[in-house]
Amino acid sequence: MANSLLCETTRGVFIISPTPFDDGGAVDRESLDSLVDFYLEAGVNGITVLGILGEAQKLSAVERQDVMTQVIRRVAGRAQVVVGASAPGTDNLVSFGRQAMDRGAAGLMIAPVSGLKTDDQIYGYWARVLEQLGPDVPVCYQDFPQSTNVVTSVAVLNRLIDNFGNLVMLKHEECPGLTKITALRQGTENGDHRRVSILVGNGGLYLPQELRRGADGAMTGFGYPEMLVQVCQKFFAGKVEQAEDLFDTYLPVLRHEQQPGFGLAIRKEILRRRGAIRTATLRHPGPMLTACDHRELDSLLARLNVRLGH
Amino acid sequence: MANSLLCETTRGVFIISPTPFDDGGAVDRESLDSLVDFYLEAGVNGITVLGILGEAQKLSAVERQDVMTQVIRRVAGRAQVVVGASAPGTDNLVSFGRQAMDRGAAGLMIAPVSGLKTDDQIYGYWARVLEQLGPDVPVCYQDFPQSTNVVTSVAVLNRLIDNFGNLVMLKHEECPGLTKITALRQGTENGDHRRVSILVGNGGLYLPQELRRGADGAMTGFGYPEMLVQVCQKFFAGKVEQAEDLFDTYLPVLRHEQQPGFGLAIRKEILRRRGAIRTATLRHPGPMLTACDHRELDSLLARLNVRLGH
Amino acid sequence: MANSLLCETTRGVFIISPTPFDDGGAVDRESLDSLVDFYLEAGVNGITVLGILGEAQKLSAVERQDVMTQVIRRVAGRAQVVVGASAPGTDNLVSFGRQAMDRGAAGLMIAPVSGLKTDDQIYGYWARVLEQLGPDVPVCYQDFPQSTNVVTSVAVLNRLIDNFGNLVMLKHEECPGLTKITALRQGTENGDHRRVSILVGNGGLYLPQELRRGADGAMTGFGYPEMLVQVCQKFFAGKVEQAEDLFDTYLPVLRHEQQPGFGLAIRKEILRRRGAIRTATLRHPGPMLTACDHRELDSLLARLNVRLGH
Amino acid sequence: MANSLLCETTRGVFIISPTPFDDGGAVDRESLDSLVDFYLEAGVNGITVLGILGEAQKLSAVERQDVMTQVIRRVAGRAQVVVGASAPGTDNLVSFGRQAMDRGAAGLMIAPVSGLKTDDQIYGYWARVLEQLGPDVPVCYQDFPQSTNVVTSVAVLNRLIDNFGNLVMLKHEECPGLTKITALRQGTENGDHRRVSILVGNGGLYLPQELRRGADGAMTGFGYPEMLVQVCQKFFAGKVEQAEDLFDTYLPVLRHEQQPGFGLAIRKEILRRRGAIRTATLRHPGPMLTACDHRELDSLLARLNVRLGH
Q1: Measured between CA atoms, how close is B214 to chain C, in angstroms?
Q2: Which of A31, B24, B270, C165 would be A20's cystine partner, CB 3.0–4.6 Å?
Q3: Residue A157 is part of a domain; what is its CATH number?
Q4: Considering the domain boundaries, does residue A5 fall inside one?
Q5: Predicted local distance difference test score (pLDDT) of residue C310
Q6: Contact residues on chain A for D285, CB-CB shorter than 8 A
Q7: Do D90 and A283 touch (CB under 8 A)?
Q8: Considering only residues 86 to 115 of chain A, which have any Cβ-Cβ distance to chain D shorter than 8 Å?
Q9: Hey, is the C-beta of B143 within 8 angstroms of any chain A C-beta?
């Protein structure tokens, strides 16, 4: 599986990985290894590095290279590694993206630059990016207007799907966005458009509904990745209500972790408590948990453990 | 209780009421009465009309007057009625607000105009509004930056609390915002600032955590207002974990209804299915449920009924 | 000319009229008459009332009716009157718009509600509005993304032009937007799309360039409307460079008046100094000139007078 | 002057330098040298590299180092070089900023990260940045909310000025912002706050007014830097009206070049036509001039030459 690539039928859970730092703020390479192991044990199908919640924008160019290389090496073919390659300049995006592919990435996750407004502006940007990357580089479109301010219509997505074979996956995060999944799937069922893989984001906040509407899984982060994995597995095994029951058990914590702009601090703390990383700090500027936040989390996790029968 | 006013110790659930329309798009006065009855039976302490989710901005001036008058009359003193009075111009805000008070409102809910950025700009706007309304008009500050783009610091809130006795309540909706509640309560506990009532919004998505941090209840909408009421009652009776258990039971539906910009269509449909209103339509422009949305809601509500043992 | 309507060949200057208030904040009806007279003497082809810079959003429903009625009556057919009818709700937009037409408006100026993002969302909104207004109501599309956050592509405009005969005019204010004028005019020259009138906004900051690209004039405000009128007249008489010379003479003042969010205070003060209105105040919330602002304006206007040879 | 640093009394014109690219999109090192020479001949006091309009965000880390190094070397002490060091992560900002100072920069230009809203959030961010850089690194605060969405009050600026001696300069670009200059200068005249240098941006669109209010010059770009230089020199020599006369002569072109998000393409083309650089292209994504844009520029520059008597 080492060099397998993302494709239109890719399914399952691609976990968005945070970047662990030590107390001095350096990338904690030991924790990065243990975090990869933690994710693999949870059964994820892939690991996505250098996303927004991986604090990629706060890493230096060298650090980005190092994180990507280390994760790909540690994973050692046991899962696919997707590399975040969004960049303000297209040339840098492409050269970094090609490096990532050369080192063994399964594909690139790219969000459009902010400032694109009309359908034609969005299409034009992507046409250039997809063309310059070339047909051999599989791309996952991060559709996350809450962060980029770029709202992509189904019409634009379908134009891109029709014209660029290397657009193979949508990281679906527009919210509300349930109807968008349905519209994309109908375009395929009608025979009008090629199918692409749809993995959902937003911490999985609507995962059961999204799976029912045709999503192939999730590309998102959560302190309990095993839940995402099992929900998808149960769902694809036809145990739809059981999948949702499991999801609902974790929902109070998931909703807490999904607070915009703050959730990453909670996620890292959960990962720290679970032994996946050694330190929960974010790089500046970023939120920090107070003593009150910690006690609140104690209470929420204790409640989860009761519900899980732990 | 008829003419009682909002005050710093007001507690409980103030339900944000939608405005029901008939198939032709007119305000459905019969449904407005039945909706009030439905809320009173659920045990709410207050009803807030003419908020953003009451589609106030799509009502004519005459309709706003009529809705407010009818609800106050129907409630007939069995709960407090808060009237949304936000307006782009301060003079109109004040004259409408005074009318509302004259007709029996318990207070006004006001969100700042968008475009205010710095602490001094925000303070200056409110100083003018609170002064012009006068000391006898109790005001609930709708702190909802997701809609207004105005982010109000704790420092500004405390300056306003210190200087304007008619600011008696905060409708807390900044998200993430748990720390803000704690900071405000500490200001009171330290003896530095007057206490105000804090009711939370955002559909109650974080209600148990917010109550634990010192909130006095909720001023928000939800298709199952009785849950909000019971969670608050249990919490204030010291049954904290039971309150949260009940909340968690409804959380899958609450999260679904809380989709930004879309949730009101779901909320109205739930209210329709429960017999509270006759028609679920919103005025244009506004979202409309598809057949697929309806089936999804069927499934979510069926799951809720199972969990409730219905 | 009294009841003549806007059409695809409408040309010249439609001045965006502020609403004058007296010191107490009431609409100053006497100043409204003198302002109309001032504009007619300047030679404008039309007057547009109840726009954003007419502080329409800070007027009550009754005041909006009164302002529109008074201006139409005072103009008495000597120019066309366009009425701003933008509203958050489509039903109110339509009923107010029809009233305006009944009272003698030449057409409606409408800006889309904010929140529309994709091409289809924008088209869908307008399709509903234009259909509901009906084929007999000529509409001017206020294309002003700096205020509405709605960016309308040439493709969407052309779809609307093709499908709705009552869309007869574009108030062009996207900035940068020179290319947009050229693209629209090429669509007409190619025979692909109906011609519409294009009047430009932004205080006329790019007026000579816009006329050269095919604009039909300006629909904007400026303390010296006679300049806008003469520039257009000279331009259409073929005296292109003379038109631009005249424009450049006023450009230092025009640029000063065009400061976003502040310029209306300057414009009203210029109008006051010129005797067009009695008081320069805006309604709250709005900017107010300081003593320093006044001295600065003294200096700029003195320089203008020198250049004009006064 | 080679290693002189920015300070509170720095005065004159610091030109914001674009980054020239060749037809293949690589940094054009030959043009970078000729551009530096062009600026020095125009008499600028400083050159600012790696700003937003230097397309810094589209350069790789290595390219940023190279551009900075080359410009500092070419300038060879004949002017000060300010280096743009804004970055999403504070650690990278600081390490890059220190490198720049080690190589001979006179100071750093920094804009705050977007997402900061309240006074305390903005102050807190800057306190960390200024502290981490240390007292020996002079900082120019780029106050440009049109790009960053961060609106900084005079109160916050004064708190920072009082507490951090290394904040020595404000690049003033808030618009409208004339009152802000006056308020800052009054704080100094009253003896309440340390004086800092204020250089203005926005292409110099309001330069004469800003100088009259106490600005020390401009830190901005324009295809005719000699105008900015001469306006400042005349102004500081007491020839205030002559300074403004000269400014007004260039204003039609300046206003054209100042179109937001598009002006850089015009600026580069003017620099190309004047022989300062060989190629006018921007990196993708970025605007490109059409044939129509070129003809329009022909006309505007011809008019300028007539007015200059060339």
Answers
A1: 33
A2: A31
A3: 3.20.20.70
A4: no
A5: 85
A6: 89-90, 113, 125, 128
A7: yes
A8: 88-92, 95, 113, 115
A9: no
Q: Check pLDDT > 80 for residue D2.
A: no
Q: Give me the residue from A241, A292, A299 closest to B182, CB to CB.
A: A292
Contact in structure between C157 and C198 (CB atoms under 8 Å) = no
Inter-chain touch C179–D296, beta carbons under 8 Å: no
Between CA B282 and CA B264 the distance in angstroms is 8
- In sequence order, the β-bridge partners of residue B15 are B47, B220
Chain position carrying tokens 């300028």: D304
Chains A and C: how many Cβ contacts under 8 Å?
28
Closest CA to A197 of A109, A116, A126, A123: A109
ipTM of the complex: 0.97
Asked, for residue A6, whether it belongs to a domain, the answer is: no
Taking contacts as CB-CB distances below 8 angstroms, the residues of chain D near C241 are: 303
Q: What is the DSSP letter of B225?
A: H
Helix (H/G/I), strand (E/B), else coil: D152: coil
A285 cis-preceded (ω within 30 degrees of 0): yes
Confirm or reject contact between D41 and chain B (CB < 8 A).
no
Nearest to D283 among A58, A59, A91 (CB): A91
Shortest distance, CA D18 to any CA of chain B (angstroms): 31
Pairing status of strand A167-172 against strand D107-110: unpaired
Do C79 and C118 form a contact (C-beta atoms < 8 A)?
Answer: no
**Cβ neighbourhood burial of D264 (10 Å; 0-12, 13-18, 19+):** buried
A261 or B44, which is more confident?
B44
Please give the Cα distance from D166 to D130 (Å, whole number): 7
- State the pTM of this model: 0.97
Query: Which residues, in sequence order, are CB contacts of B215 under 8 Å at separation 6+?
Result: B172, B181, B198, B199, B200, B207
Domain-located, residue A147: yes
How does A69-81 read in b/e, with b if 16+ C-beta sit within 10 Å?
A: ebbbebbeeebbb
Contact with chain B for residue A249, Cβ under 8 A: no
3-state secondary structure of D4: coil
CB D256 within 8 A of CB D300: yes
Q: Which of B230, B169, B240 minimizes the C-alpha distance to B208?
A: B240
Q: Do B119 and D118 touch (CB under 8 A)?
A: yes
Q: What is the mean pLDDT of residues D231-244?
A: 98
Query: What single letter denotes the amino acid at residue C287?
Result: P
Mean pLDDT for D247-252 is 98
Cβ of A261 and D91 within 8 Å? no
- Domain with B248, as residue range(s), is 12-308
Cβ atoms of residues A33 and A70 within 8 Å: yes
Does D283 contact A57 at a Cβ distance shorter than 8 Å?
A: no
| Residue A13 distance to chain B (closest CA, Å) | 21
Contact D57 A128 (CB under 8 A): no
Counting as low any pLDDT under 70, the low residues of chain B are: 1-3
Q: What is the pLDDT of residue A171?
A: 98
d(CA B159, CA B187): 11
Phi, psi values for residue A169, rounded to 5°: -150, 145
Q: How far apart are CA C223 and CA C15, in angstroms?
A: 10
CA distance B263 to chain A (A): 9
Strand partners, D218: D13, D200
Do B296 and A178 count as a contact with CB atoms less than 8 A apart?
Answer: yes
Nearest to A60 among D59, D61, D115 (CB): D61
> What pLDDT score does B1 carry?
41
The total number of structural domains that make up chain C: 1
CA-nearest residue to C88 within chain B is B58
- Confidence (pLDDT) at D3: 57
Alpha-carbon gap, residue D153 to D145, rounded angstroms:
11
Residue D222 lies in a domain: yes
How many C-beta atoms lie closer than 10 Å to residue D295's C-beta?
12
Element (H, E) at B148: helix B145-148
